[in-house]
Amino acid sequence: MSxxxxxxxxxxxxxxxxxxEELRLMSALVVMLGxxxxxxxxxxxxxxxxxxxxxxxxxxxxxxxxxxxxRLARWGLPNVVASFAALVxxxxxxxxxxxxxxxxxxxxxxxxxAMAQQVGAxxxxxxxxxxxxxxxxxxxxxxxxxxxxxxxxxxxxSVLEQLALATPSVLVEVLLTFLLTFFMIESRVRLRRHLxxxxxxxxxxxxxxxVMREIQDRVAAYILxxxxxxTGVGIVVALGAWALGVDAPIMWGGLAAMLNFxxxxxxxxxxALLALFGLGTADTVLxxxxxxxxxLGLHTVESNVVTPSILGARFTVSPVMILIALSYFSWIWGxxxxxxxxxxxxxxxxxxxxxxxxxxxxxxxxxPLFPGSLERLDLFPExxxxxxx
Length: 389
Prior knowledge:
Blueprint: H1 9-47, H2 49-74, H3 79-107, H4 112-129, H5 131-143, H6 159-186, H7 188-197, H8 202-243, H9 249-259, H10 265-281, H11 285-288, H12 290-311, H13 319-355, H14 360-364, H15 373-376, H16 381-384
Helix pairs in contact: 1-2, 1-13, 2-3, 2-6, 2-8, 2-13, 3-6, 3-9, 4-10, 7-8, 8-9, 8-12, 8-13, 9-10, 10-12
């Protein structure tokens, strides 16, 4: 390949400048489309949650249960039987966890009025200590001319009525989710063959295989590891509740294990529940806050020492991204969206690691959207072939 002469340098600079402008224009269109998709997607997914939520849940379950189905298939079971057995194992674990939580919760339902009365008495004690603040608030309201007009309160359906109305749709979505999960697990072998052998080039097949293996390994390993950690947290909480004399320790351990799947929000909700339960059953405020304080200490050790040491750097995700994903998907799909937020974030992270992460901050200041994009452009193919430009 011959070296470019000095007369070729202006042409080379012109071609490079034109390529930069064209690449930046295409990158701007990609950014605008991405922002529009990010803003419009919540409304589409929320309105069509009956369709999209079972599909997203089934996809995550397929990733988690596929290794178990593969192991059962290696033991000699047919693919259909192995897929069905993996789904049955998951449903059995889920029903067992719900039974351990719901059965004691029903037993404690009768004691809710007494607990509410006790909590009200505790707040009344605090209210009597800050009576001067209430008087100041009333005085301020009278000075500002607060409206004394009667308020109209509309009658709303009770919790049982809302539950009765929502039960049929929930059952349909659960059944649809499990059916989709089964068919996705059963078709995993055909999907792998399609990704590997139906590509135009060997390099694309290798890249598709790496992406598929990375997504499955990362998401499945993360969920299974976190499940074992949360199970340990639930056991410790149950033993601690039993040692402190708290009613239904198995229920509290199960709640702690399940809520710990939701980052940040779940432990905060568990702390609040323990605080309310303690204030409603203990004789003093200090004793009532002991269960919540003990759980808060356990969560501090688990989240800052145990979980980082077990998961390691491979599953390290920015807390800002976790909170954004948590708020984004919980806004769209509620509690189930909060549970799916971290697995979906891991899937997107694995995809971006293979296709390239966009340099959004640098793009605002004039850098390429994808690092190294200009170097990958073949501006002078005739030079690489050995000819003259």
